């Protein structure tokens, strides 16, 4: 369900019920989609800093880094991905807007919320929004979590 409250689209708690063709594997995967607002523009435009930040975030989550690739665009912004044995972390930045979009997908014993905290602090985000999706565990449940400076993580449900 999408609601337009005058400040853009907002996603409420949604359950997508799709009948699986076969039993769903228990991947214990969590997929975080995170919006970072009010970030440091200089950091968001620094490809070396952003790559180091995502590598540190992957390690903080307990993930095993396989490889990474990052690109700085001619005008503004950085895009990149860190491939981990447990899945991936990716980022796309818009320094001119102080904004970054991040995707953290991990399986197994990783704690993706720890990666989120490292990235949030590293880009000096003033506000964040997070959607958490449990992957490979039956019908998808999507949870929206707004965050502001000073908030702490209390869990994924």
Task: Using brief descriptors, characterize the structure shown.
disordered C terminus; 157 residues; globular; two-stranded antiparallel ribbon; single chain; disordered N terminus; eight-stranded antiparallel beta sheet; 3 helices; S-adenosylmethionine decarboxylase; 18% helix; alpha+beta
Task: Write a short abstract of this structure.
With 157 residues, the chain is an alpha+beta fold. 18% of the residues lie in helices and 43% in strands. The strands form two sheets. An eight-stranded antiparallel β-sheet has the order 3-10-9-4-8-7-6-5, with helices on one face.
Structure description:
- This protein is of the alpha+beta class.
- It has a domain at 40-133: S-adenosylmethionine decarboxylase (4-Layer Sandwich).
- 18% of the residues lie in helices and 43% in strands.
- An eight-stranded antiparallel beta sheet has the order 3-10-9-4-8-7-6-5, covered by helices on one side.
- Strand 6 (78-84) and strand 7 (87-94) form a beta hairpin.
- The longest helix is centred in the middle third of the chain and has 14 residues, at 47-60.
Average the pLDDT over all residues and give the rounded result.
82
Can you tell me the CATH topology of one domain? S-adenosylmethionine decarboxylase
Global shape: globular
Distance between the termini: 18 Å
CATH architecture of one domain: 4-Layer Sandwich
């Amino acid at each position: 369900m999408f609601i337009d409250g005058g400040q853009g689209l907002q996603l409420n708690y949604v359950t997508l019920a799709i009948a699986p063709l076969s039993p769903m594997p228990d991947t214990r995967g969590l997929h975080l989609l995170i919006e970072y607002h009010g970030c440091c523009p200089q950091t968001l435009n620094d490809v070396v800093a952003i790559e180091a930040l995502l590598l540190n975030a992957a390690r903080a989550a307990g993930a095993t880094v396989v490889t990474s690739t990052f690109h700085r665009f001619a005008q503004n912004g950085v895009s990149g991905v860190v491939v981990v044995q447990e899945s991936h972390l990716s980022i796309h930045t818009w320094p001119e807007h102080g904004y970054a979009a991040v995707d953290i997908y991990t399986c197994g014993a990783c704690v993706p919320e720890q990666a989120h905290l490292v990235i949030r602090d590293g880009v000096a985000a003033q506000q964040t929004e997070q959607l958490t999706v449990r992957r490979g565990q039956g019908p998808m449940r999507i949870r929206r979590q707004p965050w502001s400076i000073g908030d702490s993580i209390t869990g994924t449900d």
